[in-house]
Amino acid sequence: MSKLFVGGLAWHTDDNTLRAKFEEFGVVEEAVVVKDRDTGRSRGFGFVRYAQDADAESAIAALNNVEFDGRTIRVDKASERSSVVNTTGYRLRVLGSLSHNPTDSAAFR
Is 6 inside a domain boundary? Predict the structure, then answer.
């Protein structure tokens, strides 16, 4: 299974239009245009997931830097989100408006 990043989408491109274009290269499991959570408007990028890696590679080769829906898009493999794991056992606390005394007991509560 391969997930692709698609950048440079036109503001009017929707999930169905994105899916239809990428289905030319194989079975698309998911096609999503990312939207702003407050306004609901497109953020100009999306993701397409294929069941077969070969289909994803074909789509990258055929569609990267190609005009689609009035804009030149960028297509590449999506990078996995990295999660930061705290292995120290300490919690991070951001402190503000403290006195300049580094032994201020308020900072250690």
Answer: yes
* Structure-token match 């169905």, residue found: 16
Predicted local distance difference test score (pLDDT) of residue 80: 75
For residue 49, being part of any structural domain is answered with yes
Question: CATH number for the domain including 41?
Answer: 3.30.70.330
Q: How much is the pTM?
A: 0.72
Q: Does a structural domain hold residue 105?
A: no
Domain count, the chain: 1
**Closest-CA residue to 58 (of 73, 45, 77, 72):** 77
CA dihedral 73, 76, 77, 83 (to 10 degrees): -70
Residue ranges in the chain whose pLDDT is less than 50: 83
